[in-house]
Amino acid sequence: RIGRNPPDYYQETDRLEDYHCVCLENVRRFAEGQPLRFVMDRVRYLRST
To answer: 0.90 exceeded by the pTM?
Structure first.
């Protein structure tokens, strides 16, 4: 329900990581038709996987 306390299993350490915030910012910018803040090119993607 809206307005209820968070579940007992919620901990302060469950906050979003920086990369989650960047992803959400990119989604917001995309939805508003703005350029993305961070774009991963093919070389960087291949290094990260």
So the answer is: no
